[in-house]
Amino acid sequence: MPEHPSDRYVISTDPDRLDIAYIHAYLSQQSYWAANRPYEVVEHSIQNSLCFGLYDTTTGQQVGFARMVTDHATFGYLADVFIDPAQQGNGLGKMLVEHIVNYPEFASFRRLLLATRDADTLYAQFGFEYITDNSPYYLMEIVRPQQ
Ligand SMILES: CC(C)(COP(=O)(O)OP(=O)(O)OC[C@H]1O[C@@H](n2cnc3c(N)ncnc32)[C@H](O)[C@@H]1OP(=O)(O)O)[C@@H](O)C(=O)NCCC(=O)NCCS
To answer: Distance between CA atoms of 145 and 147, rounded to whole angstroms?
Structure first.
């Protein structure tokens, strides 16, 4: 039987387990959305988010990350989702997003939101819907791509 990702990998919200240097290195050097983000900014964002780390139980190494920016009551914004490039394409992204979407604390939230350039069909598999012209709401933003 093929190995399921959850046989080898585990997701944790323990802040002490996060490898901030690793997360910063990925975000600042490899992501398309957080290039050059300073270490202190990454650290501060982690301190003030509900973070999900994905770990390889055979090595103990962190191999994925995502954080929910949330008021812990009504709203969450999913950000900085990534899987280690060496581990991509093996179902870990789906494991991580599914875990977050089903995280008990978020079940009563009115809205979960995210922005993505090209991973929309990943999130669509777990209930995220496109905002369409038929939506009764305008979603508006101020965006500063260099920050
Ligand atoms: C996007 C990412 C988190 C997906 O994780 P992964 O472990 O590589 O992907 P998985 O093996 O779990 O499969 C993802 C599924 O979503 C689909 N998908 C949609 N957009 C995708 C994208 N941009 N990259 C990877 N997969 C994508 C895949 O085709 C796959 O579909 P399937 O169910 O038919 O197999 C990961 O590739 C990554 O970190 N990419 C770089 C950073 C990034 O783009 N993060 C998302 C920012 S919004």
So the answer is: 6
Is any ligand 1 atom within 6 A of the Cβ of residue 2?
A: no
Quote the DSSP letter at residue 88.
T
Ligand 1 neighbourhood includes 92 CB (under 6 angstroms): yes
Asked, for residue 67, whether it belongs to a domain, the answer is yes
The 10s digit of each residue's pLDDT in 99-135 is 999 999 999 999 999 999 999 999 999 999 999 888 8
CA of 122 to the centre of ligand 1 (A): 6
Q: What range does the domain containing 50 cover?
A: 5-124
The protein residue whose alpha carbon is closest to atom 32 in ligand 1 is 122
Ligand 1 centroid to residue 56 C-alpha, Å: 18
pTM greater than 0.70:
yes
Q: Give me the residues paired with residue 67 across strands.
A: 51, 79
- Which strand ranges, in their side-by-side order, compose the sheet holding 75-83? 9-12, 50-56, 62-70, 75-83, 111-114
CATH code of 101's domain: 3.40.630.30
Q: What is the count of structural domains for the chain?
A: 1
Among the atoms of ligand 1, which is closest to the Cα of residue 83?
39
